[in-house]
Amino acid sequence: MTGALILAMASGAAAQMASSHTRTTPAPAPQAAQVVAPPINPQAPPKPLVRVNGTVLTSRDLLREMYALFPYAKLHNGFPKEQEPGIRQGAMGMIVFEELVYQDAKRQKMAIAPERISREVKKFRKEFKSQAEYNDFLRLEMDGSEAKLRQKIERSLLIQAMLKSQVDDKSAVTLNEARLYYAQHPKEFEYGESYTLQTISIIPPPNANPETLKETGPHAQAVFEKAKVAKSYQEFGLLAESESDDDYHVDMGVRKDVAADKLPPEIVTALRGMKPGAVSGLIQLGKAYTIVRLVSHTMPGKKKFETVRAELIKRLQQEKYEKLRVALGNRLRKEAKIEDL
């Protein structure tokens, strides 16, 4: 949904209202063997878990947030066993944080226009496949009260409005700020010498017997005779796909932007005497043999600001956002009374 409200649907008719903050990291899909049943029954009576300045948050609130953090759990009827404690802890921290943000918004007398709430209620209802499903949701989640649904939606909108004013709007990064960071951290944007190349490797099997090892050299020489007359990227690549034993043979033998210090010295020595499109001689590396074709050679340098500007602004803004959000949470917790139940 657009706007402040994000809907997370729990299994069955018990639709779950997710938190109003934005999630930036998608959760990985769990493996079936690692999944355990949900720690909370979504249809069981809610159990009080924590009191925040007098407001009680329940197991139902926690489960909604856990589903929002790890939506795959709704499909697999559970959370990955090794991740469940961390998901639970993160969800508990989030529901407390959002309650503190909501209470602060109320203290500051922030308000949402009734017509906007009505629009979001209308959007929310469209998420249900039928009136019966919507009625089940009201019964299970809102005690059958549409007024309570409006209150929940208003709460989500207030949390978003508060986060926007205290975090989002203050986390903007200007072009000048990005330029200053770029100038003050030159090492971060430097890059070393690298190569893009194609390889054909003749590698004897592990624990090869002497006879097999004896045959490796002549076989490599025969492949080299074909490789040195390859006139193009495609010809060399097709030969790599049919003859090479390394992991890159499935992709025309291509290795992109490999740092020079990550390559064997014998290969670097050969590459530095080659022009793009040239094929090396037969290079012996221990018991194996390699033939390389140079695609491109990049000398050490520094990325221009124009090429990193967008990604840099995005990263700096995310870092600023996280710092502001943590600071807001710390301030609100410092002034709050939080009791485990």
Distance between the amino and carboxyl termini: 34 Å
Structural class: alpha+beta
CATH topology of the largest domain: Triger factor/SurA peptide-binding fold
Counting H and I runs of at least 4 residues, what is the number of helices?
A: 11
**What's the architecture of the largest domain, going by CATH?**
Orthogonal Bundle
Proportion of residues in extended strands: 15-25%
- Oligomeric assembly: single chain
Task: Summarize the helix and strand pattern as letters.
Answer: EEEEEHHEHHHHHEEHHEHEEEHE
Using the coordinates above, name the CATH class of the largest domain: Mainly Alpha
Average pLDDT, to the nearest integer? 86
Q: How many strands, what sense, and barrel or not for the largest sheet?
A: 4 strands, antiparallel
In total, how many domains does the architecture comprise? Answer: 3
Low-confidence stretches: 1-33
Estimated radius of gyration: 30 Å
Strand order of the largest sheet: 9-8-11-10
Helical content class: 40-55%
Shape: elongated
